[in-house]
Write a structure and sequence with these properties.
The complex is a heterodimer of chains A (171) and B (227). Chain A has 171 residues and is an all-alpha fold. Chain A is built from eight helices and no strands. In chain A, helix 5 packs across helix 8. The N terminus of chain A is likely disordered. By secondary structure, chain B is α+β, with helices and mostly antiparallel strands. In chain B, helix 4 packs across helix 5. The chains are: A mainly alpha (171), B alpha+beta (227). At the A-B interface, helix 1, helix 2, helix 4, helix 5 and helix 6 of A face helix 1, helix 3, helix 4, helix 5 and helix 6 of B.
């Protein structure tokens, strides 16, 4: 047992996946505070059920699913907390990102959750379309369609700004 | 496989299959598309990869109930943060003090660390003799060095005056001090934002802002300075 009280295996699991779970929760809730609370609550639920998890290799997908359920539970109770980014929060992200990534982030914010969520699961979580389909309780084809449409929408939103930027660089 | 199929699968993010590769090497248009798509995916990943608050995983670990204990999981954020503080040795300080209204000066110290600290470091350090002279009446260097190891010290614009920016390594973590000889404070204030904690402590002359990634470390340094 560690100083924090949880066992070493679950602690290692937390440390390995905390960042990705937070980012996934963030793109669900689009709010840092709520994302932290969702992850904490999800991990508490995960901690209670960890002993019953037979396939430890599947722990990442299992935790992502718990985070999703926790988000849905909180959203049903409290309503969504979307679109409340303050200026300071935008600055934190912007410091790390290229101008195009900043445009991308704004475009992601404009995407419907039904498109942004599978995208986050695929890019951040590294899950396949089949795994995402299982998590979202839909078909693999539907996931592929959503992912394709998500990228098409992002390109439509970004390319005018990107073209303008590149034109500015040339002149 | 044709261009339409290639484009459709590529945009789904499913990765390039052998059949797709076979098409692409024969098709200049799809070859160009792949290059453009790789740049797009890079920006997408960076945009999704939002920063995580410092010490977040540690706080999660500390918030878990004891293994084998019948304790009810701690359910709210206040207890979550309290667990972090307690685990770091902030016994008796408690979270209550951090729950009040955020003080603007303490919040400005956090904003400095988030936005201007890197710039201040890039501008270079000031000579030790000058630092000793400038801080002698407010927070002498020997006093700071009794708490931790100074990694950087330099003057910087702060608010409407000048502060002395100190990066201090303490046994638990890195903390930032902003010594403000011209900014007196009546009592200690606090603020927390985005996983960072700040406290402003009155000095004999002026005040000092202390910023760190955990409430316990900030409280510990504040206590050592005030002692």
């Amino acid at each position: 047992m560690t100083a924090g009280g949880t066992d070493a295996t679950f602690e290692a699991t937390i440390r390995a996946h905390a960042g990705d779970l937070f980012r996934y929760a963030y793109w669900l809730a689009r709010n840092r505070q709520q994302a932290e609370d969702i992850v904490q609550e999800a991990l508490l639920r995960g901690w209670r059920a960890f002993a019953q998890l037979r396939d430890r290799a599947a722990v990442k997908g299992w935790l992502f699913s718990i985070v999703r359920n926790e988000f849905l539970r909180l959203a049903a109770r409290d309503g969504p907390a979307h679109d409340n980014l303050d200026a300071a929060e935008r600055d934190i992200v912007d410091e790390r990102a290229s101008p195009f990534a900043m445009e991308m982030r704004d475009a992601l914010m404009a995407l419907p959750a039904s498109y942004a969520e599978p995208l986050a699961l695929q890019v951040l979580g590294g899950f396949t379309c089949a795994e995402i389909a299982a998590m979202l309780e839909t078909t693999e084809g539907a996931v592929m369609t959503r992912l394709t449409r998500a990228r098409q929408a992002l390109k439509r939103l970004i390319l005018p700004a990107e073209a303008k930027e590149r034109k500015g660089e040339r002149s | 496989m044709n261009c339409l199929d290639y484009r459709r699968i590529l945009l789904s993010g499913a990765g390039e299959t052998e059949a797709m590769r076979g098409h692409r090497v024969e098709c200049l248009s799809c070859s160009d598309l792949l290059k453009e798509h790789a740049a797009f995916e890079g920006d997408l990943r960076r945009a999704l990869d939002v920063p995580v608050a410092a010490g977040f995983a540690d706080r999660l670990v500390e918030a878990m109930p004891a293994a084998g204990a019948a304790e009810e999981p701690r359910r709210n954020r206040r207890r979550f943060l309290a667990a972090a503080a307690a685990a770091a040795g902030a016994i008796g300080i408690g979270l209550y003090a951090w729950r009040g209204r955020d003080d603007p000066m303490a919040m400005a110290c956090i904003q400095f660390v988030m936005k201007d600290e890197a710039k201040s470091i890039m501008m270079g350090a000031m000579p030790r003799a000058e630092a000793e002279r400038m801080l002698a009446d407010s927070l002498p260097l020997e006093r700071i060095e009794s708490i931790g190891s100074i990694r950087h010290i330099a003057p910087c614009p702060f608010g409407e005056g000048t502060a002395y920016h100190v990066i201090l390594m303490v046994p638990q973590d890195k903390v930032t001090l902003l010594v403000m000889p011209d900014t007196p404070m009546r009592s200690r204030t606090r603020a927390t934002h985005d996983g960072m904690y700040a406290s402003v402590v009155p000095l004999r002359k002026g005040s000092v802002g202390i910023v760190g990634a955990s409430a316990a470390v900030v409280d510990s340094v504040a206590g050592a300075i005030a002692a």
